[in-house]
Amino acid sequence: MPLRFPLTATDTPSTPEKIAGIHADPGFGVYFTDHMAVATWRKDGGWSDDAVVPYGPFQLDPSTAVLHYAQEVFEGLKAYRHADGSIWLFRPERNAERLNASARRLMLPELPVDDFLTSIEELVTVDAAWVPDAHGGEASLYLRPFMFANESFLGVRAAHQVTYSVIASPVGPYFAGGVKPVNIWVTDAYSRAGKGGTGAAKCGGNYASSLIAQYEGAEHGCSQVLFADAGTGVNTEELGGMNIMVVTAGGELITPALTGTILEGVTRDSILTMAGELGLTPVARPVTLAEIFERIDSGDIVEAFACGTAAVLTPVAEFRSHQGNHVIGDEPGPRTMQIRSAILDVQYGRADDVHGWLRRV
Ligand code: COI
């Protein structure tokens, strides 16, 4: 039976004035809409109890498995308001599939793609007033689907009861400076993911383990951290919360190939698909840190950017490490801004959706 996520709430939603105040300065992930979608999975009965309910705390027993063993996965996608007022999602099926890939790795149940889409669409419909206008920039409603082991039990095994939920947060740019280029710390002290680990899954533990490196970077004036592969420390992998790409003087757009330890970003995939249309040659291959730094220093890599749903494309000013700094520049590069505009134009309905990536709510 497909899930329907019916609205069960009879609460009083936020006033237009309150929402307008939040939309004026939303930050990222600070404010949440009036409702959330929920569903429960039980080992003996599958998915049920699907609903859209007022946003509010979960009541968790102190022995709830996720609090101890971090059996949890999540997603990130956005709802965009077009100029005519309509609301659209960008490739949400990809998020549904990735949630299931992550769930398989963490021994959580899969949620049928259609149920995932229904949960998002019902929540966004109920809280439509919270989807901001683009405001000439990149304001959107960030959607955070997640799933966690919600069983009171301290044995180490896959939970027999799991909660799925979607919450929504009106957001502006992920980085406080917007498109101002950021500095990236290249850590040699920490790894993000090893062979056979959870690097390709979007699970909270990956982000928890990246925090210490992120803070190491912050001490060196950096707002993201770049990890090398855990095995050799030679190959470029990804940033703490997003993928990395570089642009060469010859027009190649290079990003590390998916190795099983890198998150398969939807934005990453979209950029690689669009690159050819923008006159760039997309290249996904193993790429060493040494190659990137040597080519920056010789002027052959001319731009670099972080990419992800939250970050969109955020230019990189400089890579910093204990071995030295590799400077690209304080101004966003033209290729970075061209790709950034191209993807935002599709998301906000300002360009033709030639790939069929948009889905109307
Ligand atoms: C996203 O880009 O949606 C993420 O989940 C990354 C996180 C840093 C917000």
Q: Which characteristics define this entry?
A:
amino-acid biosynthesis, 8-stranded antiparallel β-sheet, L-isoleucine-2-oxoglutarate transaminase activity, 9-stranded mixed β-sheet, 25% helix, binds 2-OXO-4-methylpentanoic acid, D-amino Acid Aminotransferase, Chain A, domain 2
What do you see in this structure?
The chain has 361 residues and is of the alpha+beta class. The protein has two domains: 16-171, 2-Layer Sandwich (D-amino Acid Aminotransferase, Chain A, domain 1); 182-348, D-amino Acid Aminotransferase, subunit A, domain 2 (D-amino Acid Aminotransferase, Chain A, domain 2), CATH 3.20.10.10. The protein contains eight helices and 17 strands. The model has no long low-confidence stretch (mean pLDDT 95). It binds 2-OXO-4-methylpentanoic acid. 2-OXO-4-methylpentanoic acid (COI) binds next to loops.
